Amino acid sequence: VAPVGREIRATGGDRYQDAQVEDAIQISLQEVLRTWKAKMLPIVSFDSTRFHGTFQIDRQLQLYCLSHPIKLGERKMGTLTAVKVCHGNFEPKSEQAFLSILSSMIAQAAMINRFYPDHELSVVNMPLTTGKMPFDRSNIVGNSKAMENLYELLQQVSGAETTVLISGESGVGKELIADALHRNSPRRGKPFVKVNCAALPEMLLESELFGHEKGAFPGAHNAKKGRFELAQGGTIFLDEIGDLSPATQIKLLRVLQQREFDRLGGLAPIKADVRIIAATNRDLEKLIDQNLFRQDLYYRLNVFPLNVPPLAERKTDIMPITDYFIEKYRKIHNKNIRRISTPAIDMLTSYHWPGNVRELENCIERAVLLTNEGVIRGHHLPPSLQIAESAGVESGQNLKTMLESMERELILDSLKSSKGNMAKAARELGLTERVMGLRARKYHLDPKNFRKPGHG
Prior knowledge:
By secondary structure, this protein is α/β, with parallel strands linked by helices.
């Protein structure tokens, strides 16, 4: 292929032979495989005459090696690497944005066609370089704009000792956010202690948090360390902080103000070397107005607020999270799940998810258990998703309408899996090709729409 202007092109697609460029590519690839973040590496002081066998380029140009991870959510698939030749100004953001879009398209195509391997990628373990460690969010799935904004805030506060208050609806994953904060903090090698403040009555909760001395109350036959003592040097996560009793709120305020507490029945104060992360699904400001939550405690907790958006506000995360749970539960229940039917995907993405990620997880585990054919279909999903708006049928449907809806789903899915091959789709459903054709026409399904470009 002849060169056009300042564009660099490989002639005949042959692999070029240059040690400096090859080294840059390998370094870039290994860095992406280690961090799963985009990498740009300039190839400095190269001699353009060495490329005459493969490239025709202007002198005084600069080579850059750009690598981008191919992943969907936290499903890691591979890398996309390009060698960019620049003349004059170079805009790395636009180049990386292009690779990001391209790699995202590849990842989306892989998800839609279910081309995932059963084995995980082998990531090369490399020694950490000096400087700030990359933020590890491997336990969180989601790349929507709302989640990216949250990740930026997490990265800013993770390395500090600041108290963090996480808010969000029930089931959004506040505990995962707290866990990510701890794992990316200087305290990551120390204990991470979790306490659900709504799970225990007041007396037991105080004992759990602060511990007690022998004889502090009936049944206290031995001294016991509380969660704050067990978390010394590390992080304590106080979930459902809005359910604390007034008495416990006062004791927690003392910990935040003076960094010390007393065991129940104890006389000597104990220093608290812990970072506090709290979470709630309640509106604490409303609780303050109702005199159910202390205002001074709220201000002590709300130093760095983080809000986890509900699943209904990040629709683009639904399918990556769905895929994560399918992988999780197909392994647990030893099921061979290959894909999700198109109508089932429509139901999942159009539902409002009042129970957020927790509800989605329960929904997918149920579907994995119900299917015996390797495909999750619409009727495998809970009844709450099979409403008129999700199923795409009118309300007041009779049995005939419901059966036709299911038949259309089966035919659509077979045409999709066979890539428009009518004979193969008919065999899969146990129909003759003539009957398959009649059914496809009945539901206005054109096999040509399911064929790959260039294949008839």
